[in-house]
Amino acid sequence: MRSLICALLAGLAVCVASAGGTAEVNPAVRTHGLIQPDVQHIIVKLRTVTAVKAEIRAAQATSRVAALAARAGLALHKSQQLFGDVHVMQVDPAVVGDSVATTLARLRADSEVEYAEPDQRRFAHAVPNDPLFSGQWYLQGAAATPSAIDAVSAWDTTTGSAGVVIADLDTGVRFEHPDLQWAPIGRLLPG
After folding, report:
1. Which whole-number Å values give the CA distances from 1 to 8, 114, 167, in the listed order?
2. Scanning 9, 36, 84, 190, which has the fewest C-beta atoms within 10 Å of its C-beta?
3. Number of helices (H) and strands (E), helices first, in the chain?
């Protein structure tokens, strides 16, 4: 039975991995069409001008971001103030085909910029909170060892359904074990 479950999970992981996606491996999340590939999204924090009151700084925020983009040679599509002096800029690179790293270097070189970082989407992955998970090699990705089932990729797709029953017949079960005592009912049947 365990071999069948492992084979099903491994097959699911291979099918899901072949579906492709983003640079971040999380097959459960589809990001097609969410981000324009030509436009770079950068989070920028401008240095605070202490001699200027906060209200005046807020009013000047748009012009400061536009001036920064112009100095860096970037075409500014849009900017949005997140809070204080932190803004998200949507820009075209200075030279067609420039990488985000090149754009970041241009912005970071400006004396008005405290920091500049790429605005990237990140997604939660279904990794268990089991403190012993790192030692369970057979659940890790296939790159870790050829016999691993890459359960993490499978868990990103689904963590199961209450409508599916899987039986494991075993004569050596500890009924009091916490992994088997999930609320509201235990996971073991008598017998």
Report:
1. 11, 58, 8
2. 190
3. 4, 4
Site of tokens 């924090």: 45
Transcribe 91-148 into DSSP letters: EE-SSTT--HHHHHHHHHTSTTEEEEEE------------TTGGG-GGGS-TTT-TT-
Residues of the chain with pLDDT below 70 are 1-38, 50-52, 54, 57-58, 123-125, 142-144, 166, 181-191
**What is this structure's pTM?**
0.49
Helical H segments across 30-53, by residue range: none
Report the first-to-last Cα separation within the chain, whole angstroms: 18
Which residue ranges form the domains of the chain, and what is each CATH number?
Answer: 2-29+124-180 (no CATH), 40-118 (3.30.70.260)
Residue 74 tokens, joined: 């970037």
Contacts of 151 (CB under 8 A, 6+ apart): 9, 13, 139, 140
Q: Are 125 and 26 in contact (CB under 8 A)?
A: yes
**Tens digits of residue pLDDT in 144-159:** 677 778 787 777 777 7
Backbone angles phi, psi at 60, to 5 degrees: -90, -5
Question: Residue 163 CB: number of other CB atoms within 10 A?
Answer: 5
Q: Report whether 156 contacts 126 (CB < 8 A).
A: yes
